[in-house]
Amino acid sequence: MKDLKFKKLLDDQRSAALGKIAPVDDVPVGFMVLATCPLIFWLLDGTVAGFASALLIIGLFGVGLLFLSIGQKAHVAYDAAEVAARPRIPYKLIGSAIVALVVGLLATTKIAVPAIPMVIALSTFILCLISFGLDPMRDKGLNNPVTKLRIINTFLYQDFDDRCEELLLSLARVEDDDLYERTRVAVNTIMGLLGTIDAATPTLQRIAPSVTKLIDKMQFEVATLVEAPNGNVTEFQRRKFVVKIQTLVDTFETRARKSGIGKGRDNFELQTDVLFNRMNRYHAA
Question: Against a cut of 0.70, is the pTM above it?
Fold first, then answer.
């Protein structure tokens, strides 16, 4: 049983000692400092130097535990994240070294042979690594093609969403509630279709150029409307804008559905939204 636990501890895939996992969630700094305080009495020999040494040792030990705590929290966050960079500062390694130094210094007060305190300090350092593990030594998730694809697709989707929001903000300057609502419905249809695409597939990247051109054309139409002379939008300009926007969206929706977009897990919600959007559009017309 002990051999099995030891093998798990040093397993190169799930090893705490090699920084693969975080064996504990936190390091109780205050409690461990208080638990170690009785050892400091070894240094209290009634002299000022002894008292100063005791304060220095307890301070060093507290700093070491604080580093272990910071490193452990960073390791837990690293484990929880799908994509994460390795810590820039190896807090747990530094903390383990400081704790080992403290134990070695305490050992020198009772053991005259220098080699023995060094062995004790080295043993303490190894036990700290086994107990708390090493800091993560490499970036996480960036070597996974699916994860990289998901990151790129999420960025693309967010970029399209931000551009659509900017489009609506620009159109709001016209102060025409009907035009704004129609355009908002069109934008919701586009983003609803894009939202059904699985982020772990290359579909969104494949259609990204078409979506970019679509939004570019919509932004151009909005800019033309906003820059109307004296800010007055005629009825003809309104109808022309509505027809162009709706034609662009309908064409995009038709082509997207032919290519299989809109058949994902959110398809029912999308179909409901599109149905109500069309009902509102026809009612307004």
Answer: no
